[in-house]
Write a structure and sequence with these properties.
heterodimer, A: 183 residues, four-stranded antiparallel beta sheet, 5 helices, B: 164 residues, alpha+beta, three-stranded antiparallel beta sheet, 2 helices, disordered C terminus
């Protein structure tokens, strides 16, 4: 039987042992954790896991096995089957990697304005983090995105649009290629 | 021309110490030649002998293939030793022996390295920037250290709140 994959997303109040307890259940049910990303956002711990299912078990059974841990840890939990394409390790490369940093005084709409602009160019977000930093009376919004810019996108046009946005929303924006190399 | 297969983890040579080169004989010269040919045929800018299955302390580096920064062109170093390190730079590295993964690694920005060339002549060079990173990466290979052993942060880590 072909490999079947699901994605599990979970979030709950942060404490030591969340990952261990989930991993234990998955291990005992014969699941295999493949790619994952987990992070703490303030007091909340958020989890995304791509899991390979054991041959004889389905999503419903895995969900059932996680019930106890879910209750004990107060987790919100979601399981969704993945298509073959979604579970492929080699995702279609969408272009060159660029890092976009946006920061400025906190105000509503920063995420919307920036992401709408880059989406209009077909630029794909592969990673994104936002943080509110600074003192409560003068909060600063910091937003860092890793993106893939398709080859056909004309970078000067994007830069020029970002400059306009910078003035309009009154934030600082830089877009630069991610330096990386294989040695 | 001999392009050799680049070993990939978990090949045990990649986690082993390589032997110092005692004499630069025909065999060592052949390994040097194979390193050149294999690097040129690869998408990388540097290579260490253990990556092509030869556990000897020899590396090659030629960052001019990718960058126009300060560099020494093609460098082959035998028994390289880092004498001095300065500064710090975090850079996203990948490795020909660890496919499909890159990570942020912190290394020295500037290094002074000593070794020998393929004729046995002593070499001493001061390297900085991209080339210095590549050289440090390759010298690590001679001690069985992969960039995975030196990941300094997840990319998001930079923005994580710190409690001082």
């Amino acid at each position: 039987m072909a490999d079947r994959f699901i994605i599990i997303t979970a979030a709950g109040p942060d404490r030591p042992g969340i990952v261990a307890r989930i991993a234990r259940v998955l291990y005992q049910t014969g699941c295999n954790i493949e790619d994952s990303s987990m992070t703490r956002l303030r007091g909340e711990f958020a989890i995304m896991l791509i899991v390979r299912l054991p041959a004889k078990k389905g999503l419903t059974e895995i969900k059932q096995s996680l019930k106890k841990v879910q209750r004990a840890l107060g987790l919100s939990l979601l399981l969704r089957p993945l298509s073959k394409q979604e579970a492929r390790r080699e995702q279609r490369p969408l272009g060159r990697s660029f890092l976009l940093s946006v920061y400025g005084s906190d105000k509503p709409g920063i995420v919307y304005h920036v992401t709408r602009l880059i989406a209009s160019y077909g630029i794909n977000i592969t990673d994104m983090n936002t943080r509110v930093i600074g003192p409560p009376d003068n909060p600063i919004y910091v937003m860092i995105l890793e993106t893939q810019v398709p080859a056909k996108v004309k970078l000067p046009a994007v830069h020029s649009e970002l400059r306009k946005l910078k003035r309009k929303v009154n934030v600082d924006i830089t877009l630069h290629p991610v330096e990386s190399a294989r040695f | 021309m001999a392009v050799v297969k680049i070993l990939q983890y978990p090949h045990p040579l990649l986690k082993s110490h390589s032997r110092p080169v005692k004499a630069i004989d025909q065999r060592m010269k052949l390994i040097g030649k194979n390193l050149i040919d294999t690097m040129l045929a690869s998408p990388g800018v540097a290579l260490a002998a253990p990556q092509i299955g030869e556990p000897h302390r020899m590396i090659i580096c030629d960052v001019s293939r990718k960058m126009k920064e300060n560099h020494h062109g093609r460098i082959i170093l035998i028994n390289p030793v880092i004498r001095h390190k300065e500064g710090k730079r975090i850079f996203r590295e990948g490795c020909l022996s660890v496919p499909d993964y890159t990570g942020n690694v912190s290394r020295a920005e500037r290094v002074c390295i000593e070794g020998q060339d393929l004729k046995g002549r002593p070499v001493s060079l001061i390297s900085e920037g991209f080339e210095a990173l590549a050289l440090q990466h390759e010298i690590d290979h001679l001690d069985g250290i992969l960039f995975l052993d030196r990941i300094s942060s997840l990319s998001t880590d930079l923005f994580r709140r710190k409690v001082y």
